[in-house]
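Dear Dr. L.,

I hope this message finds you well. Following up on our conversation about the binding site, I have prepared a predicted three-dimensional model of the protein together with arginine. For your records, I am including the exact sequence and ligand specification that went into the calculation, followed by the structure tokens. Please feel free to forward this to your student if that is useful.
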Amino acid sequence: MQAAKIAASLIIARKINMNIRALLSERFRNAMSDAGIPGDFQPHITPAKKAGFGDYQANGAMAAAKAMKKPPRDVAQLILDNLQLEGIANKTEIAGPGFINIHLDPRWLARQIEYASDQPRLGMDEGDEAQQIVIDYSSPNLAKEMHVGHVRTTVLGDALARILEFMGHKVIRQNHVGDWGTQFGMLIAELESHLKQGEEAAFALSDLESFYRQAKTHFDADPNFANTAREYVVKLQSGDAAVLTLWEQFKNVSLQHAAEIYEKMNISLKPEDVRGESAYNDLLADVVLDLQEKGIVVEDKGAQVAFLKELADKNGDPAVVIIQKSDGGYLYSTTDLAALKYRSETLKADRVMYFIDARQSLHMQQVFCIGRKAGYADEWLSLEHHAFGMILGDDNKPFKTRSGDTVKLADLLDEAVERADKIVRTKLAERGLEFAEQEIQDIAHKVGIGAVKYADLSKTRTNDYVFNWDSMLRFEGNTGPYMQYAYTRIYSIFRKADEDLENFAAPIHFAQDQEYALGVKLMQFSEALEQVALEAYPHVLCNYLYDLSSAFSTFYDACPILRSDVDPQTRSSRLMLSKGVATTLKTGLNLLGIQVMPRM
Ligand code: ARG
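The resulting structure of the complex is given below.
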């Protein structure tokens, strides 16, 4: 009977995504229920805060005791009496006012790491609760070129898309590009005049910024051109074939620019993820009608307007949201409402996540509020605006070029690679190493792009941050280059050991504290992922990976691997632990959209 229970506990340990916290929580919940503690009390399992207090602690006894009017340590004891942790923990003890410290069984921990290391997803199961998750990110306006303002939405959204997919969810990426609106009348009129002069669309639009400026100058200076532009807006809206063709051409070239950026930046957005504002055009009239019928919008001075008591200001005045202008024109909010309806009804989303900067928070609140009232989003559908702060220059003002222009994303990425190239060459020269030209360029590309992305991802999303080349390209501290280097360092240990990292397998024995501490840290990967999946703060994963590489350094300083006096068993056990770290670093960085290389 007992043996069967232990076997079952091992199976469960595997089933629960190699997640120690989840496993302990489940065991504690069972124990609490067997102990007669009401079900609404949680065990509150966290990694232990101080050395010597075990590996994890359960803090839930105190709150339960208070409600049950019993001494907390007695309640903690009651939980322990019912707790089943054979084979998982080898010691539990009550500390202080009623904390329960849990010391994991090192043999169990070793088996978990060995098991995880040859699983494709580090032992994480396809969760049974796979969700359908729509992620709205990047979403540039096609009238202009992508600029520094698109870094955060693109990089943050892509990290979440990768992480949630890795965890077994069905992720539907939506690139809600701005491909509609009055400025397109001016742009396609300009395009037409270039084509008439025999230019190719791709050539005319090779620099979207200057194209936009030309069009604007033309529009302001030439009344005939301005009239044509206005006429084209109307024709575009009424579906005039010739004007639509021009518009398609413009869109395609602009989307091609964006696709090149995604490719260069290792962003997983594909052309089929594009569902621009124009895709909702045919639904807008119905949305307005529907909102009228439901009494959510009313006519006000010829416009269709929603007055939202739910979002009233300090004086109790309702928020005013225009859904249709008095001239019949629709707005950004109208499109977002249609998009929300589509995501809920057609894409069958369980969760919709928007990565849009904090300045659009009010807009998102209004869309969510109207969407809920109209029944486009059932109450169980989670609508989440994951807002983020701005990227600032050294002067603490929005990041601009020296001459005060917006920084084009393409230029920013080129500069990142150029700077990384110089640094990589210098480092190689210092170490007397010669790599092939192609490899150096590949490393410079991955380091440069990785530095920009990691600098963004490692900051708390909701804060502004200062863009600084020198700090993001440092090879020390919590930076992209350091994390990539931490991986290659382990890779080179395997090279020196003449072992193949990918196929290496050996039993793990924990002899020294640093080995054990590294083992516990290693197993916390899934906890970090789970937190990011829930709250969409990728810096939590960055911090975890950084802590993991620090734990590895501590381990490596104290526990030699390749030294001749290390016995073969210890050597292979330490290599196995190192493999776990390398695999976790690589997986974690890839989930952040950052590439690693075998050497640098
Ligand atoms: N195109 C918009 C902009 O550049 C962002 C769109 C974000 N997504 C949305 N569903 N509103 O500001």
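In brief: The chain has four domains: 19-117, 132-178+278-385, 183-275, 409-591.

With kind regards,
A. P.
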